[in-house]
Amino acid sequence: MLPFQEKHEKSLLGIALIAMLVLIYNKYLALSPMPFVYQVAMAVVAYLLIASDVLVSAFKTLFKQRRMSEQFLMMIATFGAFALCDLPEALAVMIFYKIGEFFEEYASGRAHNDISSLVKLKPSFVRLVDENGNEQKVKPRQVKIGDVFKVLKGEVIAIDGNLCDDTAAIDTSALTGESEPRLYTCGQSVPSGCINQGQVIHLRANTLSKNSSITRLLNLIEDAAASKSKPENLIRRFSVWYTPLVVGCAVILALVPLFFQQAEFSDWIERALVFLVVSCPCALVLSVPLSFFGGMGAISRIGVIIKGSIHIETLSKLKAIAFDKTGTLTYGKFTVNKIHSESLSEDELLSYALSLEKNSTHPIALSIVEYGRQRKVEEYEVGSVIEKSGMGLESTINGHDVRIGRKEYISSSCGAFEYNEEDAESSYVYISVDNRFSGVIAIADTLKPSAKIMLDSLHAQGIKTVLISGDKKAVAEAICRKLDIKECYYEQTPQGKLDTLTSLKKTLSPIAFAGDGLNDAPVVSASDVGIAMGDIGSASAIEAADVVIMHGDLSAISRTVILAKKTYNLAISNMYFVMLVKLLILMLGAIGFANIWLAIFGDVGVLILAVCNAMRALSFK
Predict the structure, then answer these.
(1) What is catalyzed by this enzyme (predicted)?
(2) pTM beyond 0.70, yes or no
């Protein structure tokens, strides 16, 4: 748009609208109209005031890109109307075209706001605090790992950091979609992009700005603009060759009188103009992408980022979703769920286990240590620790020979013993004291409560669910029984997961895979739609994924599929609606039953209706 027009566009449009009404009155209602030369002057001035940018754009596209745009259609149609002395009609075509542009900008702005509002969550400075308590404002990129920074009440956290204070109430809605503030305790990592809702807090940076949660999220949003759905790509390719075809057809219509003596040039030129106006592809070019963008905005409100509208289309047609177990269907964190003691008290047995396991970095060992310290049991001094790789640990504690580990390891020193492992989902750690079986600690990875809700919803939609897990057979099958997953693959290596998914794609494509770990990145990338759990997922899995769930609520997966179906159906219905209405008016115009005013409705009216329909995607839930 030209600078003068951009500054006064609404005023200029108002002047042109008044001029059009005056011209309509003089042409159709006035008993003694003003001289025609004045009408022409009024029409030309009003036309140039609002159409200069359209004319410039049409010629630039024609000569620089060597193609005809929708602006070129509008220019030819209005020039033809001027040639036929249809002054108000010529002005009306351009006025309503500009009104359609205003409406499009408003609609696009609303759709964009749902996603771009996340961009505003990246602060421009950080309140860095030194060892003496002095405060200094610096740019986020200047903060190093280990630096302490302060966040005031109501401020956005700029960089991921571990909480230095006892507690903090944090609004995580921008990243997770959860409206209720989350309570963090000392030492927990607080993600950037969230808002401090309580008192002043201090955080110790645990990542650089370029790797922080909000930066990763913004990178995902940028990636989302790169991928286009098949309907969008079709519309873009369609608009390139469509305009020359329309102009050619209009020329043929205008030249009909050369072949039929009874036909009049003025009549057939007007039909050609009607053909040009109604053929403008604006409604088609705008409404389909806007439907997808609105759907992406609606999906972002539930804490899910989709890297491009092409994935909305694939999600809407899913036949199956395969899931990893640990960190996806479960929390990925082992917890003690049962202690059985043969001869000692539970606390004494737990003390032996804690004292020995604190020398190991295995996830199961860490969970026992954490549980024991929560129960505040006594920690004993431990002598030299002997580790049998993959089997267990042993040492001397308070003069007693203590072993902890697998059943085979314990039975090798104290002989065979009987213990019924009741829960197939749990892992069991056995303990012996002085070569006597003393007890067992059961540890399990807790199932997420939202897993069952999500899977029931997917089954109701007719989507098959599959488990592809690296866990042992008993654990994987127990999870499948509990969640009603019919197909189960267990003890899968990363390559095994990839091979399994490749095999499933032959009969169940399109298929999605949902995972969270580094070992899931290859299979996430290979699936038709890769879904990563962004709250605890590895950077590799998130990078490879097409859809990122920014929180731990699995029901967002099924809700995303539902929203994707609604969005895709809306885009397709918009496309058919626009094409059918335009085709009807084109046929009426070709046989002389449609004038230029109906053509204007066929262009701008249909555009407004289609865009209004596309905007419904913003309210999808």
Answers:
(1) Zn(2+)(in) + ATP + H2O = Zn(2+)(out) + ADP + phosphate + H(+)
(2) no
